[in-house]
Structures are given as structure tokens and as C-alpha cells.
What we know:
Layout (H helix, E strand, L loop, with lengths): L6 E6 L6 H11 L2 E7 L2 H4 L6 E3 L4 H14 L4 E4 L5 H11 L6 H6 L3 H10 L7 E5 L4 H5 L6 E5 L9 E3 L2 H17 L8 E6 L4 E10 L2 E9 L13 E4 L5 H18 L4 E10 L2 E8 L12 E2 L3 E2 H9 L13 E7 L5 E7 L1 H5 L4 E6 L6 E2 L10 E7 L2 H14 L1 E5 L8 H6 L2
Parallel strand pairs: 1-2, 1-4, 2-3
Antiparallel strand pairs: 5-8, 6-7, 6-8, 9-10, 9-12, 11-16, 12-13, 14-15, 16-20, 17-19, 17-21, 18-20
Amino acid sequence: MSQPRKRVLLLVTPSSYRxxxxxxxxxxxxxxxxQGVDVPPTLAAEWNVPxxxxxxxxxGAARAIExxxxxxPVDAIISVDDSATVLASLASRRLGLPHNDPEAALAAxxxxxxxxxxxxxxxxxxxxxxxxxxxxxxxxxxxxxxxxVVKPTQLSGSRGVIRADTAEEFVRAFARTRQVIEYAGxxxxxxxxxxxxxxxxxxxxxxxxxxxxxxxxxxxxxxxDPLDGPLFEETIxxxxxxxxxxxxxxxxxxxxxxxxxxxxRTGPVHAELRVNxxxxxxxxxxxxxxxGLCSTILEFGTGFKLEDxxxxxxxxxxxxxxxREGGAVGVMMIPIPRGGLLKRVEGLEEAExxxxxxxxxxxxxxxxxxxxxxxxxxYLGFIFAQGDSIDAVEDALRQSHxxxxxxxxxxxxxxxxxxxxxxxx
Length: 425
């Protein structure tokens, strides 16, 4: 008698890059994947969504998941990005499924409790302080030691992250970060802004899985482009890392200590670290896998993708020995050069023809507004490459990007005065 298929609830937003990759992984593994989508429950039936949830109300959404699972039992709940990691934890706790504590999930999303827990746990982090977003930056500027980095506590992807080298720059950076918070739909009243020392060095990203608190490193990415500010837009990731085995072990140890300090014990982790002559420093750690389409370049074992491993672990299947397959690989997140309407992309065929380039995905929609950092939250798309060496992969990504041209026109906003509106028939 065959065993019933395992069922996984994937928590996604309508704009998530990651839902397709997880759905494809579930199909490869013979797992039933059901989506819980961040849409008003009243629209769920109209949009043919199995389960509509309000991610802004985690407790209410967790109760809705519990009711759903009463009729449609699930074996695991996975948030495909940052948006629902707390909800996944709350709902899993209600259903008795493996999960991180909600407090740990929250700390992995909010930079302020993250910083406090990491510092208390002895994890190397920059000196930091937090201020209400409504503070007068002029009153704060004189007491700071520069350079500093200003960042929102609850936004991701380098949104609102700005370096300031002087008091004047700090005043402008603080005000702009506050505007970014409001642009993201969060009221400045009640929000906090983190101000921390700028750490020199280079950045890496670690992708791993936690199993009962033990970290399994899946990939370590170098970020060859300097991230020294004033903005911190990420571009190129390449792996395997060029760093020495000793440095890579130190990075893994720092990440494991950070997970322990936050209380993360199971599931995927994505960590960002800065490395200098004093060793690795933990910048951020998230209880989810790498964002965007970056996971496309990773393969493990007998052709498993990153999402395969996450799903297998979530439903209790053994992973065995896992190692990354293939040679050097890399991805470039194509930055948005300026805001406006994206009209067309030129040079795509020439860019795809660069030796080593395995694909280009333009994810920005034509004739729709695009917004660059620090206000924006997305990229124009992704370039993927592989090769015999990291240098070859990095060179292929840069050459491909140079061949692309993006036609962006100003967005025209029509202002209608109150008098003109009254005059309309």
C-alpha cells in the first residue's frame, strides 16, 4: 500500500520571486505543495487561491492555517521569503510541526533585536544604537563617530541603508531613511532607525540549513563588487569562494554562533557577513533561503536544487551527504540605474551570447514603474553564468551586463487640482 503524499504549505506573496522554484521542487520530489497567499481572504476564491491569508496579522493568519489544516493536514509550513517567517513559526507551533520559536523568527527579521541578541551572544557585530525614526537628526549628529551606516530595522535587501561620513551626510541619510520607511508603507511614528559603525572589509553570503541547531553549509558566495556606500546595492555573487579554508571555517563558525544567539534551530538560513583583518562580522542572518532567482545556480548531490533540500528536510526526509555540484557559478542581480518606466531592453541576444552565460531573466515588467535603491525593493533581472574558474564567471557576468541597455523614460504623474476636479462634468 503506497504512502500518502506529503503536503507542504508554502507561504508566498503575489510578487514573490521564489514561489515557482519551490512549486517546481515539490513536483520533482512528489510532494503536494499548497500555497497560502498574502491576499485578503475574501479575494482568495476569486483569484483561485487555496488559502488567502493576511500576513500583517500573523496571529489571525496562524489561526486560519490551523483551521485549514484541520481539513487538509500539512506536514510542513515554509515561508519562501522574509514576509511570513514569523507566521510560519506561529502556525507550525499550533500544529506541532518542526519550527523555530516565533521570537527567534522575529529577531531574524528585525535588525534591532537581532543586533542585541548577537551582541549578548558574543557574536562580532558593529557598534550600534537605535533612535526613533521621528528623531531630529541634527540633535544626534554631533555625538556620533563617523563613518556610520543608517538603516531601517525592518526592511531587507539594502532598502534605506545609507553610509554617512560626516554630520551633514548623517542628517541627510537619516531623513532619507525615514522617507524610505514611509515609502515602504510603514508609519515613521513608532518605527526605529539603526545607526551603526561602518566596518571596512569585503562581504560574503552564506547559504545553509539548520538541523537541531547544527549548521550545514551549502554554499559560500563572494561578493566581488565593493560594498562601501553610500548605498549598498548588491550585484554579483560567485561561488565557490576564493577565501582560504581557515577563513571559510571562521565564517561558518560565526554564522552558527549567530543562529544560536538568535535561537534559530531548523530550516534554511541566509547570512551576510563582512570580513576584515579582525575576522568575520555578522551583518544579518535570516531564517529563509537566498532571495530573488539566485538559487537557480546551485545544484547538489544528484541534481538537487536548493529548494529540494529545504523541502526534503522540512518533511523529515534524510538529506545524507550533501555537496554542491558543478564548477564555478555566479549570478548578477541587475541594478536599476534610475527610476521611471521601463520601455524596452536592448542587447539581450548579445548579452546571452557571452561565453559562460547560461541565461538571463528580465523580471521587471515593461511599461511599469521601476524604483532604484535605496527606495526600491527589486532588480531589473538576473544574469547567470558558469565556468572553469571564478574569474571566468565574474568576467562573463560583467561582459554580459555591459551589452545590455535599458530604455527608461520619466514617469509622468498627472496632478489634478481640487478646482479642476470640481470642474469635471
